[in-house]
Write a structure and sequence with these properties.
- It is built from 19 helices and 62 strands.
């Protein structure tokens, strides 16, 4: 790598800017982030201690420290923003929020400290504190911008890094409020622009000290400043040489005699004045430009010298040499190759110049191009010659190496160069300058510098006063963009430097032992890794390890002399990082980057090897086992000529290295091994390999794998298996056990992995690697070879292999037949079988089925009826997969399943392709160091038969829940599909509509051949009418592991041995036979049977222990079978169970799609027919009818007023069953009830479907009219009755309601007087209508007035429940319709006043008006008659009186 050779003169940059003072925010942020960092570090220590299995005392100490530190950190007072004038409302709110939260954390920590809480609880609590602190530390009002460091190349920005300002900010409040890197040396890795995370290549790393602070605090900078700060005043002395005169001078010079670097600004020496706070130190001296002192080979130990030979021609003509026959890659003229001399301090490695053919060139090394004017040379080159090409060139190369013997002469040569006059030459001003004089040069210049240093009283802080004082002023108004940009970038300003008088000399040793789990970069599934180690400006690389993902380099890289400037204490506290980059070596093309890790070197002697994560971007790419030892030399650094700090010391005699440890032993010249004491201690170890077989191997290079064999590598040793003759007929190895003797580290932490390679033996001797697997942790395979006999038998084949052997006789016909005779086709006619046991009584069959057992086992007692009272079996319901249970060892006690991978890693986020599985296991144990001592006994023996086994498979699918919705209504329509090998069964016709919790209750029966068809795949699909059915999720069960496991996983053991009833024995062998087999496989004595007990493995099992205190089960079998089963249950075998398996979709492999409850029974056909399967069909609801006769109502609220102002109600009753709202029924109306009475004699008939065992109604109805299927729900059987007041011209008024749960119903009162609200508060009087069948009496209706319940009326009813058969035998109509019977309902005897006034005007007059206003009518009539007579009298009287007076007729 290239580096900027600043040596002991470090550049300093000062920047002043104006920002809002938000110290009250940043102080709090730094406080909180400090607490976060300490808590994270402490948590990491605790987790490491847990992994390392430290003692409880050490763990307690670490946890106590964690709690103490969090208490101290959270007790620090925050900056009180309420007293700050610039604070906002949000600041105040955040202050209160943070203070409250910190107090809560302190209180919780104190509680944990004084209580005796378990470790996991403390860790969970600490994780919670960590997340709270992180969220609290976020500052929404941060107005300080980040500090950005750019790396420039000319005008181009090539790399950058952003540093948050708060991290380097100085605070007056205290050290805890300062940024964590304020004034401290730190290593920063730059990133490429437009790159979020660090890519494969780091553009640069910088060691930098940043200090940011307010102007008033600038004096504080002195504390963190090191070295001597200096500013160089700088001017260039320019001279030219006229062609005629031949002497150098200022005659004819078009530039100022003394100028800046651009030559445009006049800068005589006497025009410089020191800035305030600064003074001159020394006189003017000549100092050549640094970049001229370094050739392209600076810092390299070996260098390839190159020269391009150029030829030209006219199109179609002969090739001839150009005038400039030899140039560099850019076309600049260089010396001919034969005239090129080896520079001093170097020697030629190659004897002669060679043509470079390792490029895109023809066979003689030429590349061709065409020159298009105004260019002088081609822009592009191609390897094939064409007629129109006018130029060609080829590259000559020759390797040279440093000659360590000439280093001293070289130093002297360089020193003389430096002590020369320091002129730099160029043909014209603005051209590239060089140190050696050439004949064509007409211009020369040299740089004069004078040092200023700060006055003692101001100290290093004086640099802040320089801002703006050092800028040059240009009088050139030209529009030359370059000069403007150079001024902007500050090239024209004198630089501030920090000069160190001495440097600390260090020596670094990098012990790279091994790496593991690297990602595959080659197509053969492997890589050829090597590591490049970089420390500051030096780098070295290891040897290449071929074809491995787990390289063991065992190499020490030695960096002899490194100079690090600064305080040794600060270097010890934060040493520079060591960067280890791992590459894949490729013969052709560039080496590919695998990953990198950034490590801290240790200043302790003999550091321990530790694992470092290798990262590629954000992704883990493996681990590296290494240690890095940094040794400080006794003598301080002698300053070398810049550019040669990287080399080995000039004096290579032993006296110079007395303060260094001895060099490690060499494997070959200049390749050192990891020394003893750091390298892990090795011991003789035996690895026994059980290579059982290969499964599901995918084809390789378009042809299937037919004859594979196995290669096992570990610790540099190798073992090879026999070849499987035909993978499709029998995928097991004929010879199953391999043995290796390896030297492995004593500590598990350093153990190399076991690598398994599968090789396909193809025609013509081709043996490609078709799959590989790395087993990282060997811990679980370590065993004690001298374990006791009982434990030794653990790995032997056990009772569940059940493969008949010659020496095992199973006597099956010595007792009564185990399985009752059954039709032969019942097992094979259909894949879905639900047989019914026939000997249970009808009542028991009604209430006690397999679901009773299931609900009793999960604790849902209300659904299992009297099952538990009868003393029947329960089963285990596991919350996870059977193979995930610790009790059964993952069912991999006989052999484990390892996935085989192939191919290179294509994409950063892609995992390698899984191409098959290896079935096998390992036993690892230490061998005695003395080879003459007899070796321990072998571990793998008495293996089961290797041939294919035909088995009967029963898959019971019970129910699923938490499924992912697949339809737009948020539900799905699931059905089950089962496949094993090439057979599959789809239950699509019986999909369950609109549910996320389907109850399947299905048993599928099919045959399979193990191990060829070992994977049982159970998938759930969502049925869609128009589109393709979508897969919800699937789960895969390895049947072979269950078949071979010693835990008897092929058929779980029930609690009792029953020969009939709902729990009838279903295995092929009776318990006595199973126990006999078990004793044979465990090499223990056969059981001894007595009349009421059994003796097995020195344990006595009594019948009384088993059955005392339990109700007698009428279905039990013989006593000795029950005792044998009792003994088997105590051996830790798999019990009868239902497992809960998680479903995953292949499209989203890690996201759970739901859970499925199921179990599998596996029966080898060689052992005969199994018992009858369980009937797991879901319970079916039966049709019932509720007849509700409403006789009378009393004390109903009077809600209306009649025309005449009396209180009254037009009462009717409405009723329905919950869930069946569409079947609402109502009585006729009892009009004009004055006293709250109502007479109805009205019958409601409500049909409903009812599950007796679960005591729920089963409702199926369509959610929308366009729905295809009915949605099924289960609801409680509830009758709802409501009393209403009928209104003709407005909405009816609701008066009160009554809800009756038919299972636990309010017992009615015998008379209306006894019916009150107290009945509701006395729930003892509950009856079940399903038991009583019929109930008659009075029930209260309830209404709410305010928040108080009041009685709204009383109903006299008869409730009766009948089934379908009774409904047909004793029919009854609705209301009083025909058939009006059972019982016959008479018309209600309502008072004559009960009528609707609108339809009966005569009755309205008779009963409403006459009754109420009779006297009013009579008085009105009387007054009317009186008034009539009076009117007639008044009308007739004048005429009569006149006649009387006048008497005209007289």
């Amino acid at each position: 790598y290239y580096y900027l050779p600043w040596g002991n003169v470090k550049p300093v940059v000062v920047l002043s800017s104006y920002w809002e003072d938000i110290s009250h925010r940043t102080d709090v942020q730094n406080l909180l982030f400090g607490a976060v960092d300490r808590l994270e570090a402490n948590l990491e220590l605790v987790h490491c201690a847990l992994k390392a299995k430290c003692s409880a005392l050490d763990l307690d100490t670490l946890v106590a420290r964690l709690i103490d530190e969090i208490i101290v950190d959270c007790s620090q007072p925050l900056v009180d923003v309420t007293k700050k004038s610039s604070s906002t409302h949000l600041d105040h709110y955040l202050y209160r929020f943070r203070t409250t939260n910190l107090n809560q954390i302190v209180q919780a920590a104190l509680r944990l400290k004084h209580e005796d809480s378990d470790l996991q609880m403390v860790l969970d609590q600490a994780e919670d504190w960590l997340s709270r602190l992180k969220s609290m530390a976020e500052e929404p009002q941060n107005s300080l911008p980040d500090i950005i460091i750019w790396m420039l190349q000319g005008d181009r920005r090539v790399a950058y890094s952003r540093v948050p300002a708060r991290e380097v900010l100085y605070s007056q409040t205290g050290p805890n409020c300062c940024g964590k890197n304020c004034g401290k040396l730190q290593t920063i890795f730059l990133k490429n622009p437009q790159e979020e995370v660090m890519g494969p290549k780091i553009p640069a790393q910088i060691r930098v000290r940043l200090w940011l602070g307010l102007a008033v605090d600038e004096k504080e900078f002195n504390k963190s400043a090191e070295g001597r700060l200096s500013v160089f005043a700088e001017t260039y002395e320019n001279q030219t040489k006229l062609a005629l005169v031949g002497n150098w001078g200022t005659t004819g010079l078009t530039y100022p005699k003394y100028s800046d670097v651009t030559g445009k600004i006049k800068l005589p020496k006497d025009s410089f004045r020191p800035s305030t706070g600064w003074t001159w130190a020394g006189e003017w001296f000549v100092s050549p430009e640094k970049t001229l002192l370094y050739d392209v080979d600076a810092g390299h130990m070996s260098f390839v010298e190159e020269a391009f030979e150029n030829q030209v021609r006219l199109p179609g003509g002969q090739w001839i040499h150009m005038a400039e026959a030899y140039t560099d890659v850019n076309g600049e003229k260089v010396l001919p190759k034969d005239e090129t001399e080896c520079p001093p301090g170097w020697k030629w490695e190659d004897p002669e110049w060679d043509v470079d053919l390792n490029r895109a060139v023809d066979e003689r090394g030429w590349e061709y191009g065409i020159t298009i004017p105004p260019d002088h040379r081609p822009k592009a080159w191609v390897p094939a010659e064409k007629m129109y090409h006018t130029n060609r060139r080829r590259r000559w190369v020759r390797l040279r190496r440093r000659d360590l013997t000439q280093m001293e002469a070289l130093r002297k040569n360089r020193q003389e160069e430096l002590e020369g006059e320091g002129w730099e030459y160029a043909s014209l001003f603005g051209w590239k300058f060089h140190l050696k004089y050439r004949k064509t040069d007409t211009f020369r210049r040299r740089r004069w510098r004078r040092r200023m240093e700060p006055l003692e009283q101001t100290g290093a802080a004086a640099v802040f006063a320089l801002e703006g004082a050092l800028g040059g002023v240009t009088d050139d108004k030209s529009d030359d963009g370059k000069s403007v940009s150079t001024l902007n970038f500050g090239v024209n300003r004198p630089t501030i430097s920090c000069i160190f008088d001495y440097g600390n000399r260090y020596h670094l040793r990098c012990y790279l032992y091994q790496a593991r789990d690297l990602i595959a970069m080659d197509k053969d599934s492997f890589s050829d890794p090597y590591a490049i180690v970089s420390f500051l400006h030096q780098s070295q690389k290891t040897v290449v390890q071929k074809n491995t993902l787990n390289p063991t380099w065992d190499q020490t890289l030695i960096f002899y002399e490194i100079e690090i400037f600064g305080d040794p204490q600060s270097i010890a506290s934060s040493p520079p990082c060591v960067v280890v980059e791992i590459y894949d070596h490729d013969t052709y093309g560039a080496d590919e980057f695998i990953g990198r890790c950034i490590c801290k070197p240790s200043l302790e002697q003999t550091p321990r090897l530790s694992w470092y994560p290798v990262l590629r971007g954000n992704r883990n790419a493996g681990e590296l086992l290494a240690a890095f030892e940094l040794i400080q030399r006794e003598k301080p650094a002698i300053h070398h000529i810049p550019g040669f700090e990287a080399e080995v010391p000039s004096v290579l005699d032993e006296s110079a290295d007395l303060d260094l440890p001895y060099p490690p032993p060499q494997r070959e010249p200049n390749i050192y091994m990891v020394p003893q004491g750091i390298k892990p201690v090795l011991q003789r170890t035996a690895i026994e390999i059980l290579a059982w077989g290969l499964r599901n191997v995918k084809s390789y290079q378009l042809s299937s794998v037919t004859s594979p064999s196995l290669l096992v590598e570990c610790g540099g040793e190798m073992a090879q298996s026999c070849v499987i003759r035909n993978l499709k007929k029998n995928p097991n190895f004929d010879v199953s056990v391999l043995f290796m003797e390896v030297r492995l580290p004593r500590e598990d932490l350093y153990c190399p992995p076991i690598v398994i390679k599968v090789i396909d033996n193809r025609p013509f001797g081709r043996k490609p690697v078709v799959g590989q697997c790395t087993i990282r942790s060997l811990e679980e395979f370590y065993c004690d070879p001298y374990a006791e006999e009982a434990e030794l038998a653990v790995m032997q084949r056990d009772d569940m292999s059940l493969t008949p052997r010659d020496d095992v006789l199973i006597d099956i016909d010595d007792k009564e037949p185990l399985i009752p005779a059954q039709p032969a086709d019942s097992l094979t006619s259909s894949p879905i079988i639900n047989t019914q046991t026939s000997w249970a009584s009808l009542h028991e069959e009604e209430f006690i089925d397999w679901w009773s057992k299931f609900y009793a086992s999960v604790g849902e007692r209300e659904k299992c009826g009297s099952y538990l009272e009868k003393g029947f079996d329960t089963l285990k319901v596991f919350e996870t997969e059977l193979e995930n249970l610790e009790d059964y060892g993952g069912l991999s006690d006989f052999c484990h399943t390892f996935k085989l991978y192939r191919g290179r890693t294509q994409d950063a986020n892609e995992d390698p392709t899984v191409v098959g599985e290896f079935k096998g296991s390992f036993k690892i144990y230490a061998l005695p160091d003395d080879p003459t001592v007899p070796a321990p006994p072998r571990q793998f023996h008495q293996l089961p038969a290797r041939g294919p086994q035909e088995c009967l498979l029963r898959v019971y699918i019970i129910r699923a829940f938490d499924l992912q919705p697949k339809d737009s209504n948020g539900k799905c329509d699931p059905y089950v599909k089962i496949s094993v090998g090439k057979k599959s069964i789809s239950d699509q016709d019986h999909y369950i509509p609109c549910t996320l919790e389907p109850v399947f209750g299905k048993m599928f029966e099919l045959t399979c051949t193990l191990p060829l068809e070992k994977d049982l795949k159970v998938s759930l699909y969502d049925y869609d009418l128009l589109s393709k059915d979508e897969k919800i999720g699937e789960t895969i069960i390895d049947l072979e592991n269950r078949f071979l496991s010693r835990f008897g996983a092929r058929c779980g053991l029930p609690q009792t041995y029953c020969i009939s009833g709902p729990n009838q024995w279903r295995d092929q062998l009776r318990p006595t036979q199973l126990l006999h087999l078990f004793s044979l496989h465990r090499n223990c004595k056969a059981p001894i049977y007595k009349s009421d007990r059994i003796i097995f493995r020195d344990q006595v099992y009594n019948l009384t222990d088993l059955e005392d205190g339990k109700p007698l089960n009428p279905h039990l079998g013989p006593v000795e079978e029950r005792l044998a089963l009792y003994a088997l249950q105590k051996q830790g075998l798999v019990l009868e169970h239902v497992e809960t398996r998680r479903l995953y979709s292949p499209l989203q492999p890690d996201i759970e799609q739901g859970k499925l409850q199921m179990w599998v029974d596996l029966f080898p056909k060689s052992l005969g027919a199994p018992g009858p399967p369980f009937n797991v069909t879901p319970r079916k609801a039966k049709r019932f009818f509720l007849r509700c006769i409403v006789w009378n109502a009393k004390d109903v609220i009077l809600d209306d007023f009649s025309i005449t102002g009396e209180k009254m109600s037009d009462i009717y009753v409405k009723g329905w069953m919950a869930g069946y709202e569409e079947n609402k029924q109502k009585t006729d109306v009892h009009y004009r009830s004055m006293g709250g009475e109502g007479n109805f004699n009205w019958r409601f008939v409500f049909p409903f479907d009812y599950l007796l065992a679960e005591q729920v109604c089963y409702v199926a109805k369509k959610e929308h009219f366009w729905s295809l299927d009915k949605t099924e729900n289960k609801v409680a059987p509830r009758l709802v009755l409501q009393v209403w007041d009928n209104d003709k011209f407005s909405f009816d008024d609701y008066l009160g309601s009554l809800q009756l749960d038919l299972n636990s119903m309010l017992k009615p009162a015998k008379t209306a007087e006894k019916c009150s609200l107290d009945m509701l508060d006395d729930p003892v009087k509950l009856v079940s209508l399903f038991e009583q069948k019929t109930v008659k009496g009075w029930w209260p209706c309830v209404a709410e007035e305010g928040e108080k319940k009041i009685i709204a009326g009383k109903l006299e009813m008869t409730l009766e429940i009948i089934n379908e058969q009774e409904q047909d035998e004793r029919p009854a109509g609705l209301g009083r319709d025909e058939p009006n019977m059972n019982p016959k309902l008479e018309d209600p005897k309502r008072p004559e006043t009960s009528f609707l006034w609108f339809t009966s005007p005569y009755k309205t007059l008779k009963y409403i008006l006459w009754r109420r206003f009779k006297w009013v009518f009579l008085i009105v009539l009387f007054i009317f008659i009186v008034l009539l007579f009076l009117g007639i009298f008044i009308y007739a009287f004048p005429n009569y009186a006149a006649m009387k007076l006048v008497k005209p007729f007289s």
